[in-house]
Design a protein that fits this description.
With 166 residues, the protein is mostly helical. The protein is built from 7 helices and no strands. The protein has one domain.
Length: 166
């Protein structure tokens, strides 16, 4: 019997969204969009100046990514596979990570849409070093390849914003 309501499995599957029978990673990344908006909103409310707000956002996103490692390790062990498709915490966490270079006030629907599409492209295609990061042990490998996809996404967003494309 699959332990879907074990706390680690429940969190790693994005509160069960990873159980969607098709494209669970896409649904996980979709869950990351409102999470990134919420984290940005919280950070700007918690800190009065932009630098402190950005630091708060970095700390929150970093904590989610670091805490995701043991959660994904435990969930993978319980589900009996190295990187089950139902684990989507990596996609959920990678969206706020990809948007860290974009101030919360600049996260327009168009920018969020571009970020979402880029993140999915990089997560699926696994450009260097994403494929290599995926080979890291257990939860670290599950999370790290998506951190690589988030870095590629952040770089593309930075260039697109610099060029005033979005």
């Amino acid at each position: 019997m699959t332990p879907w309501f074990d706390p680690a499995v429940f969190l790693a599957t994005g509160f069960g969204i990873g159980r969607v029978p098709f494209a669970p990673g896409t649904f996980g990344a979709m869950l990351g969009v409102p999470l990134s908006l919420a984290i940005g909103w919280l950070a700007t409310r918690a800190a009065p100046d932009p630098v402190a707000a950005h630091l708060a956002e970095v700390c929150i996103v970093t904590a989610i990514c670091v805490i995701g490692i043991p959660i994904c390790s435990r969930a993978a062990a319980l589900l009996g596979r190295k990187d089950p498709g139902s684990i989507v915490l990596d996609e959920v966490a990678s969206m706020p990570l990809a948007l860290l270079l974009v101030p919360p006030a600049d996260r327009t629907p168009a920018l969020l849409g571009v970020a979402f599409v880029l993140l999915r492209i990089f997560d699926i295609s696994k450009p260097f070093p994403c494929r290599q990061l995926e080979r890291l042990p257990t939860g670290l490998g599950i999370m790290a390849d998506d951190w690589g996809a988030a870095a590629w996404t952040a770089a593309c967003l930075a260039i697109a914003r610099w060029q005033h494309w979005i």
